[in-house]
Amino acid sequence: MHSPMDFSGRTVLVTGGGKGVGRGISERFLAAGAEVAICGRNPPDSLPAAGGREAFFVACDVRRYEQLEALVDAVVERFGHLNVLVNNAGGAPHAEAATVSPRFHESIIALNLTSALHAAQLANRVMQQQEDGGSIINIASVSTLRPSPGTAAYGAAKAGLVNLGHSLAVEWGPKVRINAIIAGLVETEQSHLHYGDAEGVAAVGRTIPLGRMAVPEDIGDACLFLASPMASYISGTSIAVHGGGEKPAFLQAANAGTGA
Predict the structure, then answer these.
(1) What is the pLDDT of residue 260?
(2) Does 65 participate in catalysis according to the annotation?
(3) What's the whole-model pTM score?
(4) What distance lies between CA 105 and its chain's CA centroid?
(5) How far is Cα 106 from Cα 103, in angstroms, rounded to an integer?
(6) What confidence tier does 259 reach under pLDDT thresholds 50, 70, 90?
(7) Residue 249: inside a domain, yes or no?
(8) pLDDT band, residue 3 (cuts 50/70/90)
(9) What is the pLDDT of residue 249?
């Protein structure tokens, strides 16, 4: 019996798929039998691999439309079709919104929102011509659900990404499904830049109801589900993959019932 999680014969494009969360997504699809294409401004030190196969890399700055166009063309030329697009590329350094330049804000929004819109538009052109359409998954963030101090433009862009999916699902259905994953705190090779050493990462993990930060493969598993036939009636929505969320700060500050 054919498994709904068997992606043999399917082609998946993961932007920013060579490291961090994107690498975990790429490796999950490879392990499920898919042909996987990834992009980045520079090739990773090693290509994502699983199931005896490696990802196909194309150099691309996703903020440049003409490079995205060449990326999608290269994927279709190599594999003949495009079944799944995962808009994963994104991120932002810490910066105070009051003092950074307009150019900085524009760059962050271009990376985290505009590029995903352009990639989705290009993928949709291909998917609409395919008998079985396609699936587009946007990787958002818990910054869409709560304040994002220090990364205000990033949080706003990710919130826009979720809303974008709601609209595109209406415009592009029934051939193409669009959904978002609201990713929580994820432990990657760059976690030390945000949380410190292993002790710091563990301490952050203890603040999450499930007792740990996510790993990239957790986000990859959610992508597999959303791209699979098991989610064939799911479109225009988002799934939070955040381990139960974050405990409200007031719970530590309050003293009700403590006798204080």
Answers:
(1) 55
(2) no
(3) 0.93
(4) 20
(5) 5
(6) low
(7) no
(8) confident
(9) 77
Establish if 208 belongs to a structural domain. no
- Measured CA to CA, the distance from residue 29 to residue 226 in angstroms comes to 12
CATH number at residue 47: 3.40.50.720
For residue 73, the enclosing domain spans: 11-182+215-238
- Please report the DSSP string for the chain in residue order: ---TT--TT-EEEEETTTSHHHHHHHHHHHHTT-EEEEEESS--SS--EETTEEPEEEE--TT-HHHHHHHHHHHHHHHS---EEEE---------TTTS-HHHHHHHHIIIIIHHHHHHHHHHHHHTTSTT-EEEEEEEEGGGTS--TT-HHHHHHHHHHHHHHHHHHHHHTTTEEEEEEEE--B--TTHHHHH-SHHHHHHHHTTSTTSS-B-HHHHHHHHHHHHSGGGTT--SEEEEESTT----THHHH--TTTT-
Instruction: Give the Cα separation of 49 and 179 in Å (integer).
Output: 25
pLDDT above 60 (res 241): yes
Catalytic residue (choose from 65, 154, 195, 233)? 154
pLDDT confidence of residue 22: 97
The mean predicted confidence, pLDDT, of the chain is 93
Number of domains in the chain: 1
* In the chain, % of residues over pLDDT 90: 82
